[in-house]
Amino acid sequence: MSRRGRRAVLPPTDFTIEPALAADGLVVTIVNKAGNGKDFTFFDLPVPEPMQRSLATVFAAQRAKWTSHYSATAAWNRLKVFAEFISGLDTPPEDLTGLDAATLKRWRLQNISTNTGRTTLRAVHRMLRSDPRLSEGPVAEELARRVPAPKPVRKSYDEAEREHVLLAAGRQFRAAWLRIRENSELLERWRAGALDEGSRDWRLGEALDHVARVGDVPRTQLPSGRQAITNRGLLGGRDIEHTWGRLFLTPSELTALAVLLTDRFGWNLSVYDRMPAPTKAPSVAESTNVTYHVKVEKRRAGNGRWFSTENITDSGANSPGRLITQALQATLHGRLLAAQLAPGKDLLMTARAVRQKDGRKDMDRPPAVGPLVFGVSGVDGKSWASEHKLNGSPFRQIRRTTVTREGKPLQHTQGTHESVYVLPDQKVRQASQQTFEDGALEALDQAKKIFFGGHLTQKQDPAHGQTATADCADETTTPWPAPDGGCGADFLLCLACPNAHVHPGHHPRLALLHEHIQGLRSAMPEHRWHQRWYEHWQRLDDLADKVGRPSWAAARVRASDTDRTLVDLLLKGQLAS
Fold first, then answer.
1. pLDDT digits (tens, 9 = 90+) for 20-58
2. pTM score, whole prediction
3. DSSP state of 369
4. Alpha carbon of 181 to those of 34, 326, 331, 450: distances in Å?
5. What is the H or E stretch that residue 170 is in?
6. For the CA atoms of 40, 108, 49, 46, what is the dihedral angle to 10 degrees?
7. Mapping DSSP to helix (H, G, I), strand (E, B) and coil, where does residue 458 land?
8. Which tens digits make up the pLDDT trace of 341-390?
9. How many CA atoms lie within 13 A of 411 on its CB side?
10. What is the enclosing helix (H) or strand (E) of 207?
């Protein structure tokens, strides 16, 4: 009997079999959030049968983490890499219990030097750690070793690269939109009876009505069994743009639209598969601007599907909403036909398949309806890039470019914005180097400004002038000269001046001032306190460190009535310099 037909008996173990694991222990079914199951078969892995079952079990144990076949397949492929490594050993172990630390060190060494290898290590070790038989000893320690994060290789487009991509996408989509709009206008005139019956435009309108209703031009059955386009001369040819492409986008044109949308709004490629057609917001006495409600799916935000709504306004040719308007116009007939074939279906990103297939194998994405397909896949992105002679699918780079250009989170958290998009981006790092240097210098300068800038002395100098907060050695060399001579600084700024001298006689008053400024923080809005009092409080806090916190606290108790009066006047701004 072949191995494929064998119904294996599980070995004795305390390892609980997950419900996703078939009774023979060699097939795992992962169900995506659309309810579709996909089988992952382990009997073809190049390892002994007991290890096949163990690998199937640790794989099944992770099923709750995966809501798509894409994620499960990625993990499965990494597990296959591990199985191939095991098969290449001089003496492959029969089961996972036969692994030793030396083998895992060799496995780590083989993968640790590349980003792909590090990702594989992380995924495989996470799965292996779910086997309780590997939870102790040197093997457990090796599985628990930290795997460095992949080195950042993500890069946004520079302006020239971005313009090149957008030019290709813009030309293709605009040509398609104009083609569909022109034919749609002709179809509307035919349906309204505005054309002379029998005229060329009338006959063309009749053909367009057929295209709109069935997704293809009229065809004539030939004796050979093949079909020929009816009235090919009237249509002007048999290529796509002269036949069904008169009213429908091709998948490539839909991909070009997705590139433009990603650049404009920073949406993930995955949202296009299930994005409902935007709806118009109610408006009162509004004749020029149109605001659309756009639902954007956040696939990782909780269980099941979850949409956020973005309001996008079309207020003119260069406004963000103009692209939404054009997208609705270009996909109109596809959406109408989809609703006819599958009532209730109204997805924005609708195209007519170039070739009729048995259906998509990717069950994470919406299934085809008649001749129509929905959304844009990673494969579509790669094909589109190849068609336009670009180096790989543009979606990740164009989204990264938009997010970094906007400088704020788009459909993700602030943490994700910083850790995934901004900090790892090579171009952001290059462009930010001088900014970081300038920022560091500015921070240093700012720090200097809010430190106590004067001198601590043990006794008063009779030659120094007295202020409300310190003694002044020379008001003629002040950093804040008054227009009519002397010092024009607020008394609170004395503590920032290099001419200031603070002796123990000042400590009670300054400690009291420090405490009262801190107390104001809870009595007023944070931004106002920060704007008005933070720098002064910071200088006093620095001074407290220099004096010593115990001495500072003891001085506060010694504050006199005169000190309290001066502090009150300083806080009210009623003490002039």
1. 566 567 888 888 877 788 889 998 899 999 999 999 999
2. 0.61
3. B
4. 34, 9, 10, 64
5. helix 159-191
6. 70
7. coil
8. 999 999 999 999 987 654 456 777 888 999 999 999 889 999 999 999 99
9. 24
10. helix 200-214
